[in-house]
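Weekly structure sync - notes
Attendees: PM, LS, DV (DV joined late)
Agenda: review two folding runs queued last week.

Item 1: First target. Sequence and structure tokens pasted below for the record.
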Amino acid sequence: MAVPKRKLMEAYMDTQPYYKTIIEQIDKHTAYRQECLNLIASENVCSPAVAKILSSDLTNRYSVGRPRARWFPGLQYYDKVEEIAEKLSQKLFHVQYANVQAPTGMVANMAAYLAVLKPNDLVLALRVKHGGHYSHVAENIFKSFNIRVEDLPFDEQSYSVDIERAIDLIRVKKPQMIILGTSEFLFPAPIRELRQVCNKTNTKILYDASHVSGLVAGQTFQNPMAEGADILTMSTNKTLAAPSHGLVACNDTVKYQADFEHAITPLLTSNHHAHHVAALAMTLAEFDVFGHEYAAQIIMNAKTLARALYNQGVKVLCPEKDFTESHTVLIDTVTSSKEAVQKLAEANIMTNSFQLPWNEDGFESGIRIGTNEITRLGMKESEMNVVADLIAAVLLKKQSIAEIKRKAQNLRLSYQTVNYCFNPAQLSS
């Protein structure tokens, strides 16, 4: 008598604990995060159309080379998709050339460095405690490239580049590059103000839009290339809401295009992950339709959340500048923010701690909050007041963590649908 197929499968699974454990853990993770208010500024959720692409056959294919000039055959249909990603990038970021093959934002930055810099050149960039990314600082990538890095002056009061001091430093040091763009991107960078002195010193301006790329594409923040940046780089998974990937762009194709392409392949990468590029193409197509509305709501939500927290007695940075012009809100807990972030996480509210400019080495009192994901799930100003109540209740110890967690779960469970995107079911009907 034949053993039923179901019994055979059960017996097989009993001998494959890794299979069961992996599936169980992923299912638990998914269910858990669907009950969490994610306020991590560097994360987002992708749309159903993008999720479908990520699980397509492109996941298995090796996409080395440029469109219509691949190293391996079989990508003639994908070539058109990569070209769409480039075309939409040019439109949304106001550039003449965009390369979508960098698999991460750090690779995009390295491609830009290789195109512009040579050993012993000087770069000015913000320190990490001023919001600079670790791909901008001396001890990491630049050390490997033998590039010198000095601090770009920072104004703690305005939480932005100190324009006058920066102009003086650029005039004296004549760096080959300055990097504008931070991991705590509250306000537009002073590109126009620095462009004139950079013209005189032949200094290139790299604008790292990783955190604000969706706001730039949605035309609600600033247009860095129109304001005078030479090179635009980004990771694509934050306010842009694409999967984790990278992009590097410019207007001077004669000066940079060939170097960008050579740096990305073969110097820094081989396969550039066709499924991520195709998913980026779909995200850009969604931004072309929904991006302005989404980006505007992100900023309205961030301002509303910041004001509500401040009114409850939470120390939110930059009240004199209405707190933020982006997706990001910064809090100073004065005491250790790592403990506060852990308490928020226990209440199913996800944030992250960071070092503020006035913190001593080894100590962090900052909490960074981003409204990009909860906005994409449909939350608006009224929900921001509720979220502020929950955060303040944790930070100011107004309620038990268990009670706050229950409220956070109930709020999040009411928002399970990704907004500002195409609906594949409607499009195919």
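Item 2: Second target, run right after the first with the same settings.
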Amino acid sequence: MALFTPSTLTVQLAEHIRAAFSGLYVLTHEPDEALAEIRRLCIDERWNLATWDVLSGLSVASGPSTALGDPLAAVNALAGMAGPDETTLLVLRNFHRYVGGAEVIQALEQQLVLGQSLRTFVVILAPIVQLPVELEKRFVLLDHPLPTREQIQQIASQLVPIRDFPHGAELDRLLDAAAGLTRIEAENALALSLVRTDRLDPATLWELKAQALRKQGLLSLYRGGERLDELGGLTALKAFCLRALGSTRRAAGILPRGVLLLGVPGTGKSALAKALGQETGRPTVILDVGALMGSLVGQSEERTRAALRSIDALAPCVCVIDEVEKAFAGTGGAQDSGVTTRMFGTFLSWLSDHDSDVFVVCSANDISRLPPEFTRAERFDGTFFLDLPSPEQKAAIWQQYVTRFQLDPDQRRPSDDLWTGAEVRACGRLAALLDLPLVEAARHIVPVAATAAESVDRLRQWASGRCLSTEVAGFFSSQAAPASSRRRVARDSFRN
């Protein structure tokens, strides 16, 4: 069931054709939908349309189809379709598979030069951008956008009677679940939910969306059950994020950007990011920057743009990027011919310029590996430093994991002056796994604040006065003990 709704693609095509751009490259995963929009545009503008694919050959709207499966012959045929005071479009489907040959490159180059005077235009429909260097400057790249919420609602309305159609908050949940799917993916997911539950169920759409993201290989959809109240402390950080995400100013176009979380490993940066989506009812999307790297020239940059487009399409959502300083560690180096630098530049531009309701949570353990432009204003709403938890916070964390791992709540706790929340959890898990008292299990824990004491101290000193506190409003202030004292406490903890 096709839905032909005009989109940004129609407007872009009309503008570029009137401006005599003879080469148009449309990036789309829905060639049938894109072709339907082009066909409607040609009817409205009274332009001639010809289409080609390797199975059907060349098809001219005003004439019979020909079994012309040769891509070179299809390109050469365009000049013969020109007419006085007429505009002709030749749409080549999946032509990126055939544009690498020397003869096809030469024919396209010649046709694109003639097309400006003959009013003949080559339109390539393909899911990836793959052009030889000879033609890169000859084509302009256009995006075929994913369906809007209104278009998805139209698709859904064709599947169920009006009396059974969801409304209000239920409809919003359904549209949130369908955001980021192609038209056919959305229609299939909606149909499957009707078969499974006899209604339009967002859970089915989330399931298929997670599968679609896994196939793409760039993003993953996190659907865990963490809650913010399970994280001890971080009072100011939690309040800041919840207030930003719960703001009523979205209607005025004032959207939250996100937060950068700097801190000691194991202090809950990733856990907070994942719990934030669950707490606010938003999907949590995890971007693995390493998965964006490709072996072909330009592939990494294109994957980065594709991932960011998908994230925008999934809005409203929470986007999590863990250990961002490692993800862009090659920025500014020559070991990868500048690929990491270009990817980083694309990501920085998106952080500042995106107008989608995406709350970005980046975590980092070493701020010195990030360039200064990463933390400038309008990239993030705030940069927070997560220090070792206080004794009160650790008491709450101990209680949580003693309960979770079904341990004796009255037993003695080990010395935990240098421990993070992750180390408290590890001690509880080992105590349950090895059937040991907590004090004995603690002998297997080496806190990162002891093994990397100098690094942790430098991190605290850097954050003091530069980062916001996670506990109280205002800047973080370093209260670190001298290094020798910390090492002494660490040794004492091993003897318990």
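Discussion on item 2: DSSP finds 19 helices and 13 strands in the chain.
Action: LS to circulate a short write-up before next sync.
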